[in-house]
């Protein structure tokens, strides 16, 4: 096994009692206290995640749009400067190799943040497809990435940097903000929890300082540092895909119910395969399940049955801390994918009834409250 | 450092047992609940069944993991802690009290004496 990498916050995690586990080639905290209390902090207050294991790959040059068009399903040429778009990198058969967000930093400069385990593949793929006039720069090791998530995320940043109107930043946009580091920090309003929140990218060496300042700024709101465990339960409740788990070179965006990130107005790799799949139809769809009885925790690879016959397997599963019920994600064939259908999840020796449920599996949060008295 | 009460006996699999009035009460140790964190489900043996010493009789699940439960003492299962069905977190909050798991009428009470004492269990934990 290759040597595990560490993020610039490794020491901070260990000294905060983080339980370190291998993930995507990195040693990261799965939790500090308990996963459930970290999960609840994000749903009701604010949580801080170190996601520095994710890649930071810069794409630039006069031909950068041609590279983006060829390699990604979304149309990033249509992004305004400062806009983020969720996108897929597909193979020729239309199968998802990775999902990521592409940021437009400037007219000819973009940033993409692939998953940790897939970053080397994504970099090699982009380099291989880069035309003359487009360059691919992997600067993953030089950057931190933090995710500040939860209804009190905005108030936390307002405490740290009161001179910035944090409420004014639109969802899926970025800007550069002075947070007292040597360079301004790239802040996007985005995240992987389904709550309001921000993701911050800056120079790796200054990660410990910002981490500490954010925890101090959020203390009054009940901020908790959160690990991979809560990150996973939070995203499952919202039905967000996890690379390598809910897809691994085997599922298309049509199957993953994420066609919103596909634009058929440019010639991306895999487009013909998607159009053919759409024409033929009959493919399985990504679904959420909520277990009707508490008879153990559903987990990845558990079989899904309909009237006694196996119709799929869970790609992800957990106990939803919000619902107090088992939840699972899986691909089910039509018409079993319709919300309200009862299927069964084989939990060891028992077939436990489960209801196919539309995403998100937990209610949407209330809209962020307008901060009062910002005189 | 986790709590290891002096009056209990222990297994290497982190169960505890105490013999009282001819009945052995079993649970998992403070160290075990701390390692698991957030217990969300406990599956216990059927009351009335007979189990051999060290047989697998149930399991305990946290958000991230599943662990088997083994009985430190063989015999007849006379009672299980029904409160854990609705409140598995009792295993975390009170592992030696309200978080107990099952009671056995031992087929051979001497089995209890052969288990680890508190000092030996502390040594196993490296305390």
Secondary structure layout:
The complex is a heterodimer of chains A (375) and B (127).
Chain A: E1 5-6, H1 10-15, E2 19-23, E3 26-31, H2 35-44, E4 47-50, E5 57-60, H3 64-71, E6 84-90, E7 96-106, E8 109-113, H4 119-129, E9 135-138, E10 143-149, H5 153-160, E11 174-177, E12 185-188, E13 197-203, H6 207-218, E14 224-226, H7 228-238, H8 271-280, E15 285-291, E16 303-306, E17 309-320, E18 325-332, E19 342-347, E20 350-357
Helix pairs in contact in A: 2-7, 5-6
Chain B: E1 9-10, E2 15-20, E3 23-28, H1 30-36, E4 39-43, E5 50-51, E6 56-62, E7 66-70, E8 75-80, H2 83-86, H3 90-93, E9 102-106, H4 110-113, H5 118-125
Antiparallel strand pairs in B: 1-2, 2-3, 3-9, 4-6, 5-8, 6-7, 8-9
Shape of chain A: globular
Q: Biggest protein-protein interface?
A: A-B, 16 and 11 residues
* CATH-defined architecture of chain B: Beta Barrel
Percentage of residues assigned to helices of chain A:
10-25%
Radius of gyration of chain A: 21 Å
CATH architecture level-2 label of the domain at 5-55 and 141-237 in chain A: 2-Layer Sandwich
Do you know the CATH topology of chain B? Answer: OB fold (Dihydrolipoamide Acetyltransferase, E2P)
Going by helix content, strand content and strand pairing, the class of chain B is alpha+beta
Broad shape of chain B:
globular
In the CATH hierarchy, the third-tier topology of the domain at 5-55 and 141-237 in chain A is known as Gyrase A, domain 2
The CATH superfamily of chain B turns out to be: RNA polymerase II/Efflux pump adaptor protein, barrel-sandwich hybrid domain
Tally of separate helices of chain A: 8
- By CATH, the superfamily of the domain at 5-55 and 141-237 in chain A comes out as Probable tRNA modification gtpase trme, domain 1
């Amino acid at each position: 096994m290759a040597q595990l990498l560490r993020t610039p916050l490794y020491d901070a995690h260990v000294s905060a009692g983080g339980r370190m586990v291998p993930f995507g080639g990195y040693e990261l905290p799965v939790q500090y206290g308990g996963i459930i209390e970290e999960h609840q902090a994000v749903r009701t207050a604010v949580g801080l995640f170190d996601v520095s294991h994710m890649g930071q790959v810069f794409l630039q040059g006069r031909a950068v749009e041609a590279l983006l068009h060829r390699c990604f399903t979304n149309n990033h040429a249509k992004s305004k400067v400062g806009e983020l778009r969720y996108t897929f990198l597909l193979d020729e058969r239309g199968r998802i190799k990775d999902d990521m967000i592409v940021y437009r930093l400037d007219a000819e400069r973009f940033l993409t943040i692939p998953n940790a385990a897939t970053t080397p593949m994504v970099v090699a793929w982009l380099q291989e497809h880069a035309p003359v006039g487009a360059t691919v720069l992997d600067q993953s090791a030089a950057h931190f990435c933090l995710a500040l998530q939860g209804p009190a995320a905005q108030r936390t940043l307002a405490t740290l940097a009161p001179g910035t109107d944090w409420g004014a930043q639109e969802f899926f946009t970025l800007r550069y903000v002075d947070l007292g580091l040597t360079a301004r920090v790239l802040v996007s309003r985005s995240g992987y929890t389904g709550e309001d929140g921000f993701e911050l990218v800056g120079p790796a060496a200054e990660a410990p300082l910002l981490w500490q300042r954010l925890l101090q700024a959020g203390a009054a709101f009940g901020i908790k540092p959160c690990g991979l465990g809560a990150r996973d339960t939070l995203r499952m409740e919202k039905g967000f895909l996890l690379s390598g788990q809910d897809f691994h070179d085997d599922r298309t965006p049509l199957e993953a119910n994420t066609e919103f990130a596909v634009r058929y107005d440019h010639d991306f790799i895999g487009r013909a395969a998607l159009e053919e799949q759409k024409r033929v139809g009959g493919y399985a769809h990504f679904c959420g399940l909520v277990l009707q009885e508490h008879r153990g925790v559903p987990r990845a690879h558990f079989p899904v049955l309909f009237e006694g016959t196996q119709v799929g397997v869970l790609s992800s599963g957990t106990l939803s801390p919000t619902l107090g019920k088992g939840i699972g994600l899986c691909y089910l064939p039509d018409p079993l994918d319709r919300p309200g259908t009862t299927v069964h999840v084989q939990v060891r020796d028992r077939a436990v009834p489960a209801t196919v449920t539309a995403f998100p599996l937990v209610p949407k949060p209330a809209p962020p409250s307008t901060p009062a008295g910002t005189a | 450092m986790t709590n290891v009460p002096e009056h209990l006996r222990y297994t290497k699999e982190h169960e505890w047992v105490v013999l009282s009035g001819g009945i052995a009460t079993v649970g998992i140790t403070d160290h075990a609940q701390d390692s698991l964190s957030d217990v969300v489900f406990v599956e216990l043996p059927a009351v009335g069944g007979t189990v051999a010493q060290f047989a697998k009789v149930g399991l305990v699940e946290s958000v991230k993991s599943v662990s088997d439960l083994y009985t430190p003492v063989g015999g007849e299962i006379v009672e299980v802690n029904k409160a854990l069905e609705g409140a598995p977190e009792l295993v975390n909050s009170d592992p030696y009290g309200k978080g107990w798991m099952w009671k056995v009428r031992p087929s051979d009470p001497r089995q209890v004496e052969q288990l680890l004492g508190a000092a030996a269990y502390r040594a196993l934990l490296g305390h």
